[in-house]
Automatic annotation (TrEMBL):
Highest taxon of source: Eukaryota
One MF term in the entry's GO annotations: ATP binding
Gene3D superfamilies named among the record's database cross-references: Transferase(Phosphotransferase) domain 1
Domain Protein kinase: residue ranges: 1-269
Name of the molecule in the record: Protein kinase domain-containing protein
Length: 269
């Protein structure tokens, strides 16, 4: 297995929370898609830091989405994970696009290089980078990473201030005025999904979900449970044909669409 080592403070909440989420009890809940911690390695001569060992995952944006159903599968897993975390009074506080990963082993059977993401062996002159559409190898397992800002609260009424991670558009974000961190989580993942609906054509079916998850007024914003319920009701009405519908990155020329869809053309990154 290819793995990644992340140095963290031995006394950090990140380490404690990551280990907790990797415990058998937490892993028994299928909604838990927090990245699993495979091991914790001590650093010789260093009592302050340790190495967390995690599977090497693929950024969800490295490989383009091709079908509506691919996005729906991803959204479903992250919504369920959000619900799971909040039921356990855990707030991520950085549930944003660059912390959303996937198991790319079936999408890229030949593997990829950790730094040169669009190569198999790390060299530009190496073999052509090949990958499969998510739809052809589904289900794809998605993962949430980076619990550096996360915390487990005593109850859901706790309000906090502080650093909210990547997304600086959260309306109530403040270093001085306390706010509901659970609603911030909802906004962050909702906004990540919303950006996808803007970047791709054909994802309007997610508009009502994202609008309710990113409402500027936290009191009018969905909770994680409400977001899951809304998604489930909507998904029950979506046909298989709708899920198989082709989506495109906004601005993709018609000629390129034709080559990709009908001639099996795979663009090199």
């Amino acid at each position: 297995m290819k793995v990644v080592f992340k140095p963290v403070a031995a006394s950090s909440d990140e380490l404690a929370l990551s280990i907790l989420l990797s415990s058998p009890k937490m892993r028994s809940d299928s909604r838990n898609c927090a990245v699993p911690i495979l091991d914790v390695v001590d650093i010789p001569g260093n009592d302050e830091r340790v190495l967390m060992v995690m599977p090497m995952l693929k950024d969800i944006y490295d490989i383009p989405f091709r079908r509506v159903g691919e996005v729906v599968e991803m959204v479903e897993q992250f919504l369920y994970c959000l619900q799971f975390l909040h039921e356990n009074n855990i707030v991520h506080m950085d549930f944003c696009r660059y912390n959303l990963m996937m198991d790319g082993s079936r999408i890229i059977p030949k593997g990829w290089h950790f730094f040169n993401h669009y190569t198999h062996d790390g060299t530009v002159s190496g073999p052509r980078f090949e990958w499969n559409e998510r739809w052809t190898v589904r289900p794809v397992q998605y993962y949430l990473i980076d619990f550096e800002l996360s915390r487990q609260l005593q109850d859901t009424s706790t309000q906090v201030v502080g650093d909210w991670g990547q997304d600086r558009t959260v309306p109530e974000m403040s270093f001085d005025v306390p706010c509901d961190p659970f609603k911030v989580d909802v906004y962050q993942i909702g906004n990540a999904i919303k950006k996808l609906t803007i970047e791709y054509t054909g994802l309007r079916i997610l508009d009502s979900l994202t609008e309710n998850m990113t409402a500027s007024d936290p009191l009018k914003r969905f909770t994680a449970h409400e977001a899951v319920q809304h998604f489930q009701k909507r998904k029950a009405k979506w046909s298989k044909r709708a899920m198989e519908s082709r989506i495109w990155i906004v601005g993709t020329p018609f000629k390129k669409r034709f080559m990709i869809q009908y001639r099996g053309y795979t663009p090199r990154f």
